[in-house]
Amino acid sequence: MLSGINKSNKLDFIAKELQETEKNNNIRQLKAICPQDGVTIVKNGKSLINFSSNDYLGLSKHPSLMLASQNYTKQYGTGSTASRLVTGTYDIHEKLEQKLAKVCGKEAALLFNTGFQANTTIIPSLVDQKSLVLCDRLVHNSILQGIFLSKARWKRYQHNDLSHLERLLKKAVLQGYNRILIVTETVFSMEGDRSDVDGLIQLSQQYNTLLYLDDAHALGIMGEKGMGLTANKSGIDISLGTFGKAIGSFGAFITTSKLIRDYLINCCPGFIYTTALPPAVIGSIDAAIDLVPSLDQERTYLGGRIDYLQNQLINLGYKVCNSISPIIPVIIGDEEKALNLSQYLETNGILATAIRPPTVPKNTARIRFVLSSKHQPEQINYLISLLKQYHES
Ligand SMILES: *Cc1c(COP(=O)(O)O)cnc(C)c1O
C-alpha cells in the first residue's frame, strides 16, 4: 500500500453526509408503489388515493395514449438507436415537433429528453461568464443547475416580485454584461402560484434581455386549448414544456424561433450527445397532444375542485399558498410534523408526500396536495374530513 493513503476512509464523506441528513429528519428513501388507475395506487399491499402525482388529467392511463405507444413500437421498434444528429431523427420526431410548434402558436419546437436535461443544458448554451442571469427566488433546481453550469453571474429576485426584477435590470444594464437572461417558471412547482407572463415579456423587451420560461406545470391544463401559459405569445425566446406531468408521458420540448432552434441543434450538448426519445414515448405524446385541446370540460371540473379544496383548507385553518393550479401546498413548517401528517394520511388511505428542505426553503416543510380531474368529489371530501380530524386532534 502506498504510504499516506488510507483506503478505508475514501467513502467517509458519504456516510457522514447521510448521518447528518438523518439527524435533521431529512433522509429520503425510495418507496415503490403500483398504479391502479388515474388516482389510486397500491403501496405495501394497501390501496391509497394518490394526491401527489402530477398526472393532472389522468392521461398516463388513457387508452389512446397507451394504444399509440404500442402502435409506434410495432412500427418503429423500442429504441431510436442513435442521437438526433446521427440516425435518431425519425419522421415521427419531426412531425411531433411541427405539431407542437403549430398548436403552441410558435415558429419552431425542439424535443429534449427531460425537462431537467433541457434546463441544465440550454441555459449554459445561452449565457457565459460575461452574462447575467436574473431568476425568481423559487425556481426549480434544474434551472439553478443550468445557471451554475453556465458560469454566468446570477441574482435572484423576490418571488414573483417584478418591481424587484426591474430594479435589478436597471442596475444590470449599466454594468456591461454581454447578455442578460431572465428565467422563471409560469406555475411554481412547489407553491402552485403563477407568474405574470405578460409583465415578464414587457420587462424583457424594455431591457432587451433574453426570456426563458419554464411552463412545465401549465402545459395540458392552462392557456388556450390547454397548451400552457406561454402558448401563442410572442416575446418569449424559449418556453419549456414537459411531457411527464399533465401530458402523462415522458420527455420535454421547447418552443422557440427557427434561429434559436438551429443554434441549439448545433451548439447544445444536452441535445446533441444523447439518444433520441424512443418511439413508444413519441407515440403517447402525439396522442396526448391530439387529445388535450378537447379536454376543456376536464379542465373546468379541475378548476372547480381546486377552488373547493383551497377554500376548505383555509376554512380549516391550514396555512396555504396563493395557489391557482392543481398544486395545493399546505405549509407545516417543521419537517417532523410534515412527515407525521403525511403518515397519518397514509394510515387512512391517502398518499400525500411531505416536501422538505432543500426542495423548499427552510422551515417551510409542506404537504403538496395535487389534484387531478380524475379525483371524484367523494375522494376530495374524504381528504378534507381527515384533515379536519387531524387539525382538531
Ligand atoms: C418537473 C419539472 C422539471 C423537470 O422536468 P422532467 O421532465 O421531469 O425532468 C423542470 N422544471 C419544472 C418547473 C418542473 O416542475
Radius of gyration: 22 Å
SSE ordering:
HEEEHHHEHEHEHEHEEEHHHHEHEEEH
User: Which molecules other than protein and nucleic acid are bound?
Assistant: pyridoxal-5'-phosphate
- What is the overall silhouette? globular
User: How many helical stretches?
Assistant: 14
Entry summary:
This protein has 393 residues and is α/β, with parallel strands linked by helices.
Describe this entry's structure for a reader.
Homodimer. Its EC number is 2.3.1.47. GO terms for molecular function: 8-amino-7-oxononanoate synthase activity; pyridoxal phosphate binding. Its cofactor is pyridoxal 5'-phosphate. This is 8-amino-7-ketopelargonate synthase. The chain is of the alpha/beta class and 393 residues long. The protein folds into 2 domains: 127 residues, Alpha-Beta Complex (Aspartate Aminotransferase, domain 1); 231 residues, Aspartate Aminotransferase, domain 2 (3-Layer(aba) Sandwich), CATH 3.40.640. 41% of the residues lie in helices and 16% in strands. It has 14 helices and 14 strands. The strands form 3 sheets. It has a 7-stranded mixed beta sheet, sandwiched between helices. A hairpin with a 4-residue loop joins β1 and β2. α12 packs parallel to α14. The termini are far apart. The model has no long low-confidence stretch (mean pLDDT 96). Pyridoxal-5'-phosphate (PLP) binds next to α5.
